[in-house]
Amino acid sequence: MADEKGPGHSRRRERSRQAIFAATRDLVAEGPYEKVTVEAIAARAGVGKQTIYRRWPSKSSVVFAALLALSEEADGQPPALPDTGDLRADLSLVMRATVEEFADPSFDRLIRALTTEIANDAALAAEYREKLARPLAEAKEARLRSAQEAGQLDADADLGLVLEVLYAPLFQRWLHRSGPLSAAYADSLVDAALRAFGPRAGVKPPAGRTAG
Amino acid sequence: MADEKGPGHSRRRERSRQAIFAATRDLVAEGPYEKVTVEAIAARAGVGKQTIYRRWPSKSSVVFAALLALSEEADGQPPALPDTGDLRADLSLVMRATVEEFADPSFDRLIRALTTEIANDAALAAEYREKLARPLAEAKEARLRSAQEAGQLDADADLGLVLEVLYAPLFQRWLHRSGPLSAAYADSLVDAALRAFGPRAGVKPPAGRTAG
Amino acid sequence: MADEKGPGHSRRRERSRQAIFAATRDLVAEGPYEKVTVEAIAARAGVGKQTIYRRWPSKSSVVFAALLALSEEADGQPPALPDTGDLRADLSLVMRATVEEFADPSFDRLIRALTTEIANDAALAAEYREKLARPLAEAKEARLRSAQEAGQLDADADLGLVLEVLYAPLFQRWLHRSGPLSAAYADSLVDAALRAFGPRAGVKPPAGRTAG
Amino acid sequence: MADEKGPGHSRRRERSRQAIFAATRDLVAEGPYEKVTVEAIAARAGVGKQTIYRRWPSKSSVVFAALLALSEEADGQPPALPDTGDLRADLSLVMRATVEEFADPSFDRLIRALTTEIANDAALAAEYREKLARPLAEAKEARLRSAQEAGQLDADADLGLVLEVLYAPLFQRWLHRSGPLSAAYADSLVDAALRAFGPRAGVKPPAGRTAG
DNA sequence: TTCTAAACGAGACGGTACGTCGAGTCTTTAG
DNA sequence: CTAAAGACTCGACGTACCGTCTCGTTTAGAA
Q1: In chain C, where does the domain assigned CATH 1.10.357.10 lie?
Q2: Buried b or exposed e, range C189-204, using 16+ CB within 10 angstroms
Q3: Residues 63-102 of C with CB under 7 A from strand E
Q4: Which end of chain D, N or C, is more open, meaning fewer C-beta atoms within 10 Å of its C-beta?
Q5: Which residues bind DNA (chains A, B, C, D) (predicted)?
Q6: What architecture does CATH give domain D11-74?
């Protein structure tokens, strides 16, 4: 599964790989996306263009791989969300953190680049879902499942849908710059989600709570 | 209201304008977005490149203008949503229609191009919100307000937020191809929105409905 | 002979004609020839492009006409060369004057432009010969004929050839910048021509000089 | 002597260089000079435009280099003129050959293009003198010097001037199309030059002929 | 003096070529 | 035997002019 190159050119290989990723990330974070060219990446990484094309088929792929690696570095362990038992508080915390991430210009540019590449390339989109979106979604769903089991969410709730109702409005506002991204906005989305998917009073009492 | 070009080779001007828009739309709808070049547009429109650059500063602008014009043609009158009095049914209808639009490959490519251009150009994004998104949002909010007045939505509901909860998940699924866009999905979003923003049972009974 | 325009918008016509010529000459004299464009001429002359194209078929023609007009202005009367009776002195004077003309940067650029246009356009070349070169050559030949009759040139000398031997080396040096254009050089050409075409000693004694 | 490019993709480089030169020469020889565009050269050579611009700064330079290369190919050895001992005959031969060259339409266009480029670009003119004109002039002067030593030319004659008197009239007639280029014309130039620069009878008897 | 028709200035138009840039490929040389 | 270096083909970029084509606007002469 690992790279496991027979001889030991591994060192060099890995060094240039990291240099390419770093250069890519810096360029994306720094400036306008049209300045992110393969030539600029190669130059900044101190690498030949062919060393890039040997490994990735297109600029999109490099950018994508660089951002993917970014999140993989951070995630030695799978991402986990806080679980204090207070679903509303935990969700609010996470949503507010997301809002703040989007406010960082570097992060903004990084994600905007990623989104742009993904939007027009179905293969990349699939890889994105597999390697980035899904693990994150699973971590989030885990927290929701815990809440569901604790009767804080409707037993029938589709947890994927809950996540969409929470995050998609945030994402869309950010992408289209169609409104302010504030803590209050984050909370209002948490409120809406909890109203939509919270326990339905009197109708479906949480399992195992029969003896009120 | 009309073009009313004071002086002008108005005929020619308008003809080439339409040709440019048509060519742009065709190219975007037909094929991969990287084939949509200013040269291709000019060639297909039977127009000099300069005629394009004289009017728009960038490819983004032309594409945007072409799609904008598309919607302006359709909208002699402001868009209006069905209002049968049955909010759930009306929303379901509209959401299902949206789902179907996204299923059309031409429309898909059109909107994907628009989204991509907008994502990386704040000025274009502003124009998009002003000229395309807002009128549509207002029409939708009008329908929701009618429902609110009829007590089918909570009186305190932020109608913009309701729209986001309805549409953003749909949009995100489509953009990221992260799940099927089906009628059932549309309905589940309507359900969620109505649970989140429907009248709060027993708390705020709809005005004037005391005598059931 | 004259333009014989049916009606007579002559004043305006003539004004713009002069403006075009002046603008053309200024542009040619000022700067690099590639900056001499029809658009630049029209702009500087305060004239529409069509006013130029209505009268001349190409940039070459305008430039040519402008320079032609320049020499026609000067030449109310046909050009005449000094005839003091001393052929060597007269030729030296004229050749030295030519050398000095070529030293003037404006004149240099003017003639260089003219030469360039003429070299690649046989029709223009014909017009040049007819309207500019021939009258000048005839004036010069007249002076030579006078000398011939005075026995200062061989009676059989081809006067056209004499002029070529005098002027062509000068012209070529100037065109190719292949050597200094000096008064001494002018004189050495006069010497050579006189040696080549002067009276052949003892063979054909000048008429009427029998009694030395 | 060789290009000696430190590193080098020499094979490819040389192949494309030759292709560019061939294409340029063909285009110049074939047709009107305004059809000789960098794009046309690149297309015909099967080469990217950038490969041309990487090596030469302007169309002029390419054309010049192509024609220069043409003459360098021919001249493995330095050019030499016939020396039969009979100066008049040798000059007549060479001048007549020149006249015939100018009669060839391809050669005519080639030289006309070269002349045009050179006339308006002092740097190119310098290179032309250095690399094309001078070697040729030196070969011709060598022949004249031989004649001078044999007493067939005046000992004081400026050989450069002799060449100018011989060739400049020919060149000018050709450039301006101001008269027929014939064998007779060539001979009349030889006659004139020999009269102008031949031994001055009785004044300076040729060296080494003391014992007349 | 008013009317009429040409020529006019202005400048947009369909084009061609410019010279530059970047994508992705290919080749050479150094390590 | 891989990687840096960088030249290569290709094709789009955005600009400059070409020569053509309307547009109103003078303007001079005829009515």
Answers
A1: 87-197
A2: bbbbbbbbbbbeeeee
A3: none
A4: N
A5: 37-56
A6: Orthogonal Bundle (1.10)
What average pLDDT does the structure give for chain C?
87
| Identity of the highest mean pLDDT range in B3-17, D138-152, D195-209 | D138-152
Question: What pLDDT, in 10s, does the model give residues C65-94?
Answer: 999 888 877 766 666 789 999 999 999 999
For nucleotide E27, the protein residue with its alpha carbon nearest to C1' is D9
Class in CATH terms, C10-58:
mainly alpha
Nearest neighbour of D119 by CB, restricted to C112, C125, C173: C112
Summarised one tens digit per residue, pLDDT across range A160-204 is: 999 999 999 999 999 999 999 999 999 999 999 999 998 875 444
Q: Which two tokens stand for residue D154?
A: 């005046």
Mutation for testing the A interface, residue in B33, B88, B120 having most A CBs under 10 Å: B120
Architecture of domain A10-74: Orthogonal Bundle (1.10)
Residue A12, CB, strand E, below 7 Å: no
Q: Which strand E bases fall within 7 angstroms of a protein CB?
A: 6-30
A-B Cβ pairs (cutoff 8 Å, strict): 99
Tell me if the domain spanning A87-197 has CATH number 3.40.50.510.
no
- CB-closest option in D126, D172, D189 to C172: D172
- What percent of chain A shows pLDDT beyond 70? 86
Compare CB distances from A168 to B161, B168, B201 and report the shortest one's residue. B168
The C 19-38 residues near strand E by Cβ under 7 Å are 19
Query: Is the Cβ–Cβ distance between B19 and B46 less than 8 Å?
Result: yes
